């Protein structure tokens, strides 16, 4: 391996060290990789353990959060202040963050919208497949006609607490696609059951 004289990441005088195979302009850390690539590869190889560590850390923080100096009943956000007081005292921090997000959205609006639409479409297909892929009443399999029905008739209350559309589909996936309270119906059957309390297909059988 080629040996060159470059400045390492640590503070100190110039020293002789090995260069990384991935980025020749950076020093070698391990496995022939620079610091950034090494940690990225380690995270990919240990993805499950890293996620478990993050979940445990977040749970521990939720159980014993640091109280804010301004409002002890709230969690410390930054500099000893809660979220509201911090942005009230330092409004430029919020402006810079929102400004960068806004500029990025304006610059890549079409890509962001297309990516979100594709993600929602894939999630909807996953929900449809999880609930059988066809209407439980008339066996229609056209995905454009299918929707999730609340068997107990409490759809309005549940949507107020959980959300609609993509948010509702994420909730179903997170809870393991429960089959005892939800089923897949086409819009005709779902509408008829909601308005009249029955579906004409049931009387035709």
Description:
The protein is mainly α and 205 residues long. It has three domains: 1-64, no CATH class; 65-107, no CATH class; 117-204, no CATH class. Helices cover 51% and strands 9% of the residues. It is built from nine helices and four strands. Helix 3 packs across helix 4 and helix 5 (109-130) packs across helix 7. The longest helix has 22 residues, at 109-130. The protein is extended. The termini are far apart. Residues 1-16 have low confidence and may be disordered.
Provide a concise account of the structure shown.
By secondary structure, the protein is mainly alpha-helical. The protein is 51% helix and 9% strand.
Question: How would you describe this structure in keywords?
Answer:
9 helices; single chain; two-stranded antiparallel sheet; 205 residues; disordered N terminus; 3 domains; mainly alpha; 4 strands
